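Lay summary

Proteins are chains of building blocks that fold into shapes. Our project writes down both the chain and a compact code for its shape. Here are two examples, one after the other.
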Amino acid sequence: MKQGIHLEYGPVAFRDRSTGRLFLTRSTLVGRTDAPQTVVDGVTYPVVDVDISSDSHPFWTGTARTLDSEGRVEKFQRRYGAAGVRKEGSA
């Protein structure tokens, strides 16, 4: 592997903006000098704010809303009736 061409890789704290929860992981964003710092268990980490994480995403929190509660097949049958449905064996 060539030396000096790869980004620095190390521990970073990602903070969800809507919940404030911190996630500690590793990233190439560790080299950012403009990032704010936080201390977790006596260790200082750069903080990267994210808009959505698994802590606030509707799919993972169970608060996802269904916009169309009516099924597509039922909507098609209501609109076009039985005439729009092809039966097996018909050409």
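And here is the second example, written the same way.
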Amino acid sequence: MGTATAGKSGAAPTAWRNWAGNVTAAPARVVTPASVGELQEAVRRAAEDGLRVKAVGTGHSFTAAAATDGVLLRPQALAGIRSLDRDAGTVTVAAGTVLKDLNQALARQGLSLTNMGDIMEQTVSGATSTGTHGTGRDSASIAAQIRGLELVTADGRLLTCSEKENPEVFAAARLGIGALGIVTSITFAVEPIFFLTAREEPMGFDRVTAEFDQHHAENEHFEFYWFPHTGNCNTKRNNRSQGPAAPPGAVSAWIEDELLSNGVFQAANSLGRAVPAAIPAIARIASRALSARTYTDIPYKVFTSPRRVRFVEMEYALPRERVVGALRELKAMVDRSGLRISFPVEVRTAPADDITLSTASGRETAYIAVHMYRGTPYQAYFTAAERIFTEHGGRPHWGKVHTRDAEYFAEVYPRFGEFTALRDRLDPERVFGNDYLRRVLGE
């Protein structure tokens, strides 16, 4: 049976905290359903008790999208592959499955997702519901790889959705921000496993921005990081190759991925938090520490990397043709400000997709992500960055820090009204509502 625990109220410890530690919630009860039936019953009971319901994954969102004072559902027990159809090229997995476990299970079967983000600690439902993505010229976000899903609606029914079945729900629920129901399983498109060759190379800011369109056109997956207070960037190009696997040597992998990207980076950020004036000097050293390297491996070992240094993040999706101008404005703003930024700025791309509230819905997209080390004040930097991004028609990532509301989203998403009308139909009583959804979707 699933378990339910009473939440604490008042000054007692909060029952839930997100990964970054910037969002907490004190639900009335926490339920860990052991089956879809138990999850449906939990939703029905919550509605009867006048409580709102939210499902929470691993807490990798920086927004309060999953926070609730009602019933917090933890779907970890709903995990694993349900079925695999090699002929159709699909895999169906339970919603609480962690991406890392899915990637490893698929690899054992000689299969892979086409594209993925750089972190794989999230649940499949949490990642897709907020629009988690990697970088790609032709291949899009994880949600865009969904071919079907099951959704528990506000009245406790289980709805099956695909392009053929409940297509209008499918169009929206692939990225539903938890507003339309609780996703219980997802069917992804998969393909035979392949090799990617990664080429990482330092490059100057002026060169990488001048050549951005060329790099995007010539590479299946292109991204780069700019180190604030410097003119230095690190670029990464991932392209399919014949193989064989040639992963980084154990020592160089440890130096790059653990020592520099986690260990030294953690120490540098801690020093920067204690002595902000030292950050520009640290940035100059850090941006020169990474060297060029090339390696080949299966997709998840190239796309993803461990992220042990905790941070808070804002990311905006811009029309791709606007990203270089926006990035140059961001650099100019940082250069003339008194801000001290110890985290690199990340730039990625995505093709247009057809998901109602996807950040790449209907337009070729590029992303700019800004980060601050956990525990350092981020508001001044994020506010200034957000001002630049919104002037370029940016759409914020649904799971990352932003201050936008429904009025703004109605302007930047042509199909926004389509989503809110569907929500009115599926959840008129706002069983799945919370303060975050009230702000971003309206009453």
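What can we say about the second shape? The longest helix spans residues 250-274.
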